[in-house]
Design a protein that fits this description.
heterotrimer, A alpha/beta (about 450), B alpha+beta (about 375), C mainly alpha (about 325), A: about 450 residues, alpha/beta, D-Maltodextrin-Binding Protein, domain 2, 6-stranded mixed β-sheet, 18 helices, 11 strands, B: alpha+beta, 3-stranded antiparallel β-sheet
Chain lengths: ~450, ~375, ~325
């Protein structure tokens, strides 16, 4: 969010703010043609599409600094095609988009944090299919292409599957954050296998310290970090096909395989010695507050498992890669299932089929659209044609390497499940489990909810 | 309030004390937020707001300057500085390792693994010595237990007030709120009078239905109403949101006003009717002025509700930057994942200033005891 | 600036329009059925039958379109499936009756309905009567009213700073736990302790609604004719007696209105529950359940069914209102 520092007293800023806003081409973050790492050809090619006079409304969940970042990407589209592009964000995106599409006043492009909602709206005919051509393009140009095509394919109102959503910004979830200097001071080594990780956990406890910071609280969404844990463990204990069956509902929630993953999570989270604040605090600790333990003095904990967006909640001035770093949440050596990676991403879909909307989706296929954000912060992409040297910081580069090299990549399971389960029963069930409930009972409860859906 | 002199002052004391207790109890939670709005995020996470004015004792980690900036001094290479920088403070203990951050007292010298030494004084001055020319790299971490004077800041308010688009949003909110408060009052006042003082079949049923409509959950109405607006061409705009707010506020308005108007003395109305005044005149000249306290009460609540509302605004008015109301702009400051409590605190207080002003302004009408003395004499 | 002009124009046109309708229609009625002349009696009768509808007309129209029609729609939706397309008859209702969370919500709502309106009205009454007598009454009123003026998000952050929990040994940033620790106890995760967490959530709504009750009851108290109080004082009544025997009975109608309104608001409350516990740990309430099914579960059928239950719960109040209105006679 741009802050107008030149404005002095509030009154002055009030007056300035009410002056007519110039709907101008914003300054492009990177001047076209200057840095050779960027793919300026795709930008030039974009200029052939002329959309002057047309407006494009984009609606998404990003606010504040994230909004500034998407604005910077969108500015290139606006500058090249001459369209008037407006991005607006909301913290109650899901609510708003359901209302807007249901009432017939949708934005042109909608950015969905979870694909489950895309599925619902596609089935009701509120989303325009992107076409087989785009699906084929994703198949070829995204690393682990088939996964991304599957994620964007949903049933339409006629019952037939079609490709509806293009995934643009990706988050990596199988990461454990730690403070390298703390590890150095204590003489710990980064664990390469899950067995080593568990041994390290025990070792830290034996030395009188606390190994993990875990926080499941998130206001109305409390419980989602726990689902990430369970999904990562599911991927490490079972084959990718079994994981897929689970997210589709074919593998029941109270199946022994799922319960085994839940109980593995319990090994970490239900032990009072393993978690900062004790097992009872886990559900009440906000996920945004929990990483602070890593940076306390003496350290409140040594490790924190969380997705790639968590650095924005580290204390101010923390340099990622130096003060804080991450390692891959390891796989079991004895399971021999390779190195699976769990991630999430935002889906771009056309909610009002206009020429500008179609052109925007084409824009998102071009390398420049990805590179502009890659060069700033907090953005990962599986696009093979985007130049990885453009990444703004080495940490992102490291994450991108994990992403591109993963032999198995799977999307966040709770995002794939129907809303009532993936954004409801699964979350609440995990909270109950963290609070001491029996895994089988929790699994049965979630299964019952799933079975009862219309 | 009258009474014997002695009991009167005792009573006044009791009343004052009880009122004070009530007010304090009610204000403490808000006070917490107010104080938090002057602190920064790390402070809020580190200590309770009641400690904001106290010197904070914390374990902090300070990073020394890069080793290659060390200056040769005799046989050693030396780095000097102060952990506090410009601000003051005092050091109670320090350490070299994360495991033992309090191992040393100020003035002592700690020796690291590579033969380098660290000394920290109680005013924060530190001195690092290296036996040989140090390699380039990051500065070492210095762990200090500090007592820093309280830090209060106006930064949060600054961030909120100069937020982009706030001025425009402020105007938008006004544009939405004033009509949305005034129009329901008008419509409801007439309806309330009819329900209170006119006889017609179905009166009781209609009143009961209006009371029942108070409970209609807002969420159930949004999609059908927006669809209706789109269908008749209103789309998203001010007219739509005024109508929506009017409708949502009507049940409460009718209910409150009707109760008040029904409580007006019958004689006044009857005698006016006998005098030959039309219903409309009775309403305009007698009932409306006498109902000011009720009108003012409802106006306050409706103003409040519309001012603080965001959902109805984003649904019926829109989410685009030039349409956004103030609550929307303030929410934008919070970032996608939330968690900026200090910004939230400051924005809550920036936003509350107008409703409080309205409350103060309309208080006069609430206080006017219009009926006092007006009954005697008819 | 043209926006302000637009808004001002609307207010003026709106007021003008309303006045035009009310005055105009009345004038027309009086012209068509003059209360004088040969048919005076008959005209007055007829006019009196028509007039109430002129006064009520705009309100009824707006309410019918904006509130009644969505209710009808909800009934229709509750008989259909998640997307509103396939008819499922009583399927949603059968699910509702069997659902654990629904039962829990009903129990909790009952608790809320018993405690919150009573507490808010009581505190509001106390606040109103106390602050009326003070020199600093206006300030006191504003401070007690302030919770109402703060948006719900602000309120939930405020109470987060009260109920927050940190592990033992860490600095508490929640006031309640700080007090408990100060008194020697161990900090608790208050919002997870069933059933007390319900009371914790109710405290927030009581804190907010007391301002509402206070404002309305204050206006009512001020409307009590002085003579009645003077007479009682001359008879030697104590202040408490005056309060209970003279003042309260005279504002009983208003107390009932406040109680009713808060009761209905309690039925609708969901923001507090959503933001602080999201219905976890046994705190689910009906309105939050409806919200959950509507926007998380994307099931308009189930959400509508829950919404209808909420609306049905208000029927006793409606019946009571009818009875009272009929008794008023006139």
């Amino acid at each position: 969010m741009r802050i107008d520092r030149s404005a002095g007293p509030a009154l002055l800023s009030l007056a300035l703010a009410t002056a007519p806003q110039l709907a101008a081409a914003q300054d492009l973050v990177f001047a076209p043609g200057e840095d050779t790492r960027f793919d300026w050809e795709s930008y030039e090619a974009l200029k052939q599409t002329d959309l002057s006079g047309q407006t494009l409304t984009v609606f998404g969940p990003w606010l504040g600094p994230d909004k500034a970042l998407i604005d910077s990407v969108v500015a290139y589209f606006a500058a090249a095609t001459g369209a008037d592009v407006r991005y607006s964000g909301s913290d109650s995106f899901e609510q708003q988009i359901v209302i807007d599409t249901g009432a017939g006043s949708p934005p042109d492009i909608a950015i969905f944090p979870q694909p489950g909602l895309v599925a619902d709206l596609a089935a009701r005919g509120h989303i325009a299919p992107l076409g087989q051509e785009t699906a084929d393009w994703v198949l070829e140009n995204y690393a682990a292409g088939p996964s991304w095509v599957d994620l964007g394919t949903h049933q339409g109102p006629d019952g037939a599957d079609a490709f509806y959503g293009l995934i643009y910004k990706v988050d990596l979830k199988s990461l454990v954050w730690f403070v390298p200097e703390n590890f150095e001071d204590a003489g710990y080594e980064i664990p390469e296998t899950m067995e080593d990780l568990k041994a390290l956990t025990q070792q830290i406890v034996d030395e009188g310290e606390t190994p993990w910071c875990i926080g499941l609280g998130s206001g109305a969404a409390t419980g989602w970090p726990a689902t990430d844990w369970v999904e990562d463990l599911m991927l490490r204990l079972n084959t990718p096909e079994e994981y897929d069956a689970w997210t589709r509902g074919e593998l029941a929630f109270d199946d022994p395989k799922v319960l085994a993953a839940i109980e593995e999570f319990g090994w970490f989270v239900r032990n009072d010695d393993f978690v900062q604040g004790g097992a009872g605090a886990v559900a009440s600790t906000d996920f945004r507050d929990s990483p602070k333990g890593l940076f306390a003095s003496p350290p409140g904990c040594y490790m924190h498992k969380q997705a790639s967006f968590i650095p924005s909640f580290f204390p101010e001035g923390t340099e990622v890669g130096l003060d804080a770093d991450f390692f891959y949440f390891p796989a079991y050596e004895e399971q021999d299932l390779g190195k699976p990676v769990l991630g999430g991403g935002t889906t771009f879909a056309i909610t009002r089929d206009t020429e500008a909307a179609r052109a925007f989706i084409e824009f998102l296929k071009s390398p420049i659209a990805h590179e502009v954000w890659m060069a700033q912060s907090g953005f990962l992409t599986p696009l093979k044609t985007a130049n990885p040297e453009v990444y703004g910081d080495p940490t992102l580069r490291k994450m991108a390497d994990i992403l591109l090299a993963a032999d198995t990549f799977r999307f966040d399971g709770s995002d794939l499940m129907p809303g009532a389960v993936g954004a409801g029963a699964f979350w609440t069930g995990m909270i109950d489990y963290a609070g001491g409930a029996d895994a089988a009972a929790v699994g049965a409860m979630i299964r019952k909810t799933w079975d009862s859906l219309n | 309030m009258e009474g014997m002199a002695g009991t009167r002052s005792r009573l006044t004391w009791a009343v004052n004390l009880a009122a004070l207790l009530l007010v304090v109890l009610w204000t403490i939670p808000t006070l917490g937020l107010l104080i938090s709005s002057f602190r920064d995020r790390d402070q809020i996470a580190a200590s309770g707001w009641w400690r904001a004015a106290l010197p904070a004792e914390q374990n902090e980690i300070f990073r020394a300057p890069p080793p290659e900036t060390a200056v040769p001094e005799g046989p050693l290479w030396v780095l000097e500085g102060n952990v506090f920088g410009e601000a003051g403070g005092s050091v109670a203990a320090f350490g070299l390792s994360a495991r033992e951050p309090k191992a040393f007292a100020p003035g002592e010298t700690a020796t690291g693994r590579a033969g380098d030494t660290l000394t920290v004084e109680s005013d924060g001055a530190f001195r690092i010595t290296y036996p040989e020319a140090p390699e380039a790299g990051r500065g070492d971490r210095i762990f200090v237990t500090t007592t820093t004077p309280p830090r209060l800041t106006l930064e949060n308010y600054e961030t909120v007030i100069v937020a982009q688009g706030l001025g425009r949003a402020f105007l938008n909110t006004f544009t939405v709120t004033i009509p949305a408060t005034v129009i329901p009052i008008l419509i409801a006042a007439f309806a309330a009078y009819a329900l209170a003082w006119m006889r017609f079949p179905g009166r009781a049923l209609i009143l009961a239905c209006i009371v029942g409509l108070l409970v209609v959950p807002l969420q159930m109405t949004l999609i059908p109403l927006l669809r209706l607006h789109n269908a008749i061409g209103l789309d998203k705009g001010y007219l739509g949101i005024w109508l929506a707010h009017t409708a949502f506020g009507l049940p409460m308005a009718v209910f409150l006003l009707r109760n008040y108007i029904a409580g007006l003395p019958r004689e006044i109305i009857e005698s006016a009717r006998v005098d030959g005044a039309t219903e409309f005149e009775i309403f305009r000249r007698i009932v409306l002025p006498l109902s000011f306290p009720a009108l003012a009460s409802f106006a306050i609540f409706q103003f409040l509700w519309v001012w603080n509302d965001l959902l109805v605004a984003t649904v019926f008015l829109g989410n685009a930057p030039d349409q956004l109301v103030m609550t929307g702009v303030l929410r934008e400051l919070l970032g996608s994942l939330g968690g900026e409590w200090e910004i939230l605190a400051a924005s809550a207080f920036v936003s509350i200033s107008m409703p409080l002003l309205v409350f103060f302004g309309l208080q006069r009408y609430l206080v006017r005891g219009l009926l006092a003395g007006s009954v005697k004499g008819g | 600036m043209e926006q302000l002009a637009f808004a001002s124009a609307t207010i003026v046109i709106g007021i003008f329009g309303c006045v035009l309708w009310f005055w105009g229609s009345n004038w027309l009625l009086d012209r068509a059925l003059p209360p004088r002349g040969p048919n005076a009696a008959r005209n007055i009768g007829r006019a009196a039958r028509v007039r109430p509808w002129l006064f009520l007309g705009p309100a009824l129209l707006v309410l019918a379109v904006y509130l009644v029609w969505p209710v009808v729609l909800s009934v229709w939706l509750s008989l259909h499936d998640a997307s509103g397309q396939r008819f499922v008859g009583l399927g949603n209702w059968r699910w509702l009756i069997a659902d654990d969370k629904f039962r829990e919500s009903m129990r909790n709502n009952l608790l809320w309905l018993l405690i919150v309106p009573a507490a808010s009205t009581l505190f509001g009454l106390i606040a109103a009567s106390l602050t009326d007598r003070l020199r600093w009454g206006d300030l006191a009123k504003s401070l007690i009213f302030m919770p109402m003026a703060i948006s719900f998000i602000g309120a939930s952050v405020i109470w987060k700073f009260i109920y927050d929990f940190r592990g033992e040994g860490q600095a508490q940033i929640g006031l309640l736990n700080a007090v408990v620790e100060g008194l020697g106890g161990a900090p608790q995760t208050w919002l997870t302790l069933s059933p007390w967490n319900n009371l914790m959530l109710m405290a927030v709504l009581i804190w907010i609604q007391t301002g509402f009750a206070m404002v309305i009851l204050s206006a009512a108290l001020r409307g009590i004719p002085e003579e009645t109080v003077e007479a009682a004082v001359l008879d030697g009544a104590s202040p408490l007696q005056i309060f209970f025997k003279i003042k309260v009975p005279q504002i009983w109608g208003t107390i009932a209105v406040v109680w009713t309104t808060i009761t209905i608001l309690v039925l609708k409350v969901f923001d507090i529950v959503l933001a602080m516990t999201n219905g976890q740990w046994g705190t689910q309430v009906l309105a939050n359940l409806m919200f959950d099914w509507m926007f998380r579960g994307n099931d308009t059928g189930r959400a509508s069914a829950v919404a209808l239950v909420i609306m049905l719960l208000v029927t006793p109040i409606m019946i009571w209102n009818i009875r009272t209105a009929r008794r008023e006679g006139m």
